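ok trying again, last paste got cut off:
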Amino acid sequence: MKSYEVNFDGLVGPTHNYGGLSYGNVASQSNSQQSSNPREAALQGLAKMKALMEMGFQQGVLAPQERPDVAALRRLGFAGSDAQVIERAAKDAMPLLVASCSASSMWVANAATVSPSADTRDGRVHFTAANLNCKYHRSIEHPTTSRMLGAMFADQKHFAHHAALPAVAQFGDEGAANHTRFCRDYGQAGVEFFVFGRSAFDTRYPAPQKYPARQTLEASQAVARLHGLSDDGVVYAQQNPSVIDQGVFHNDVIAVGNGEVLFYHEDAFLETDKMLAELQAKLGKCGGNFQSICVPRSQVSVEDAVRSYLFNSQLLSRADGSMLLIVPEECRGNERVWQYLQSLTSSGGLIREVKVFDLKQSMQNGGGPACLRLRVALNQTELAAVNPGVIMTVPLYDTLTQWVDKHYRDRLSENDLADPQLLLECRTALDELTQILKLGAVYPFQIN
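nice, full thing came through this time. structure:
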């Protein structure tokens, strides 16, 4: 039976803004308070989805969350009508209003961790929504994320859903941004690679000194248990604390993997040789041939990797066995990174081609191509069981671009977030979107 890796890209929400909310994310903080363009952001993301679909890759879409999150503001003590809640938050605690308006759910690499049926004990695809408890504006996402994934992958015969881990620091979980799967074929058993920044209970593991390590070893281990993964099918690796302190807040900012290949920076991990040997041995038992591409610090510094988001890219397998790397425009704008990529693709190695996409609106807030997609490996039967409304087609692309043009503003500043009309605009747009994507009632305003 044929299997696929389906990329479900996050659709950028109508409140896309540069709030500078993510400490440790250099791009997010450096562009704080600039005016954003939600319409352009959404159209840029949709253009990438359409392009990959036209290249022959399976492509889906994951809807944004309801923002501003009035219910979250009510839990923090703001009362009255919805308009009054927003007005009072803007007057008394603007940072909380900004956080409640964040469109960060666009980066669906953080939505969940996904294990395909070939790896799990019960033969189902498992999803665990990420608690994202390191940042308040992201910690409020997982209830809607769980409903959304449940509406997309509803057939319990094929799909299993787990609630987010306890929302405490010891179980900080950032989802697929710190998870990669290696396999010979998407439908065959593989090795799931969990990368953590610190251990909550074991002091033998060093921790970064400047920025927080968002993923814990204990969270990764809990997800592996929930998904019914075997010890032979899991490898845990620690992210280098020094690169976290240089702005590498997730592993997908310094490494990306697909199929049998890991593309990573020389400084990405601790005990790299031991980790590579374990990946090679365990993938070998699954019939695979693990291969790695190390980018030397002498050619690309960590600073250049963070500025360009070289590794926050999509590594895609083509029918002829070669690989395609999807990178943001910022890679072409960095001379050292672009020179490295030219030498990489001309060497006749595993990565044969690089395609560049303009994702400036997302990039300025700290998210590149890899942040914008959640990878789900599915066989033909499972793919047929997915809600068909979320699978990208040319008609769906056309409908969504028209929907964006109709509902999205082309400029948004912090002051605009205090406008109660924005809430009405967003709810109207999202109510229409759930009908387009055939999701049913997934948003709080549709349920309550």
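cool. The first strand starts at residue 3 and ends at 10. The CA atoms of residues 24 and 212 lie 7 Å apart.
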